[in-house]
Amino acid sequence: MTARSLSDVEYNYKLINERIAEAAQKVGKKREDITFLAATKTVEPEIINYAISLGLDHIGENKVQELISKYDKYDLQSCSLQFIGHLQTNKVRQIVDKVDLIQSVDSFKLASEISKQSLKHNKKTDILIEVNIGREENKSGVLPEQLDELLGQTAELEGVYVKGLMAIPPICENKHKISVFFNNMNKIFIDISQKKLDNINMTILSMGMSADYYEAILEGANMIRVGSSLFGARNYT
Ligand SMILES: *Cc1c(COP(=O)(O)O)cnc(C)c1O
């Protein structure tokens, strides 16, 4: 951890907050209406904690093993830890007592296991349902037309609470194209909110990453997940 990387993180953190505020204002929202979650994969806890000291209050990991190995080092008094990656059913029990929200639920089997493990800890875990909005073959998430059924089943589970939707649209060079995906997600989100389903709370719409969080906010996102724009390019070695 060099002084340079810390000052970069500070600079980036301020810049991202300014861009969030600007995008929010364009759609008649306030900065506080948008949750800035930092995607912390591959980032050392010291750097994550530095970002937390600047005011960052949501972080998300996307691998169980990595979350477990970093867990004792995070400074979580004022920060929510979430899970944002693909989650295997047999790994749920390793994280369910450690995270405030699991963003990537895309099957009843997974939701049931989260519920079961949560109840063992006398808790109810907040979850988002991940939607495969680009209908991509090898991508996680339910297809939009499967959403109603999954929501109906999940609403019956005592140990989970559906708080909204999450999506990772296809990579698009073209900002207009990506905005269409975000806009479709927002329509689905609003549509479900209006149905006022029992035990389903549509408060969080999590979409937008480093390349496109500004566009996502313009199309209705109220949570963005940003990694490399905050911490720099990831080094996977
Ligand atoms: C890594 C990751 C992000 C952030 O990606 P960047 O392009 O680095 O901002 C967002 N969401 C999920 C699920 C991720 O795994």
Properties at a glance:
globular, 237 residues, 41% helix, binds pyridoxal-5'-phosphate, 8 strands, 8-stranded parallel beta sheet, single chain, alpha/beta, TIM Barrel
Task: Please give a structural write-up.
With 237 residues, the chain is an alpha/beta fold. The chain has a single domain, classed as TIM Barrel. The chain is 41% helix and 19% strand. It has an 8-stranded parallel sheet. Helix 6 links the parallel strand 5 and strand 6. The model has no long low-confidence stretch (mean pLDDT 96). Bound molecules: pyridoxal-5'-phosphate (PLP). Pyridoxal-5'-phosphate binds next to strand 8 and helix 9.
Percent strand? 15-25%
Q: Number of domains in the coordinates?
A: 1
Query: What is the H-and-E element order?
Result: HEHEHEHEHEHEHEHEH
Rg: 17 Å
- Total strands: the figure is 8
Which word captures the global form? globular
Overall pLDDT metric? 96
Give the distance, in angstroms, between the N- and C-terminal Cα atoms: 16 Å
Low-confidence stretches: none
Query: So, the CATH homologous superfamily?
Result: Alanine racemase
By CATH, the topology is TIM Barrel
The assigned CATH architecture is: Alpha-Beta Barrel
Q: Structural class of the helix and strand makeup?
A: alpha/beta
Q: Going across the major beta sheet, what is the strand order?
A: 7-6-5-4-3-2-1-8
Count of individual helical segments = 9
* CATH class identity: Alpha Beta
Q: Helical content, roughly?
A: 40-55%
Bound molecules: pyridoxal-5'-phosphate
Largest sheet: 8 strands, parallel
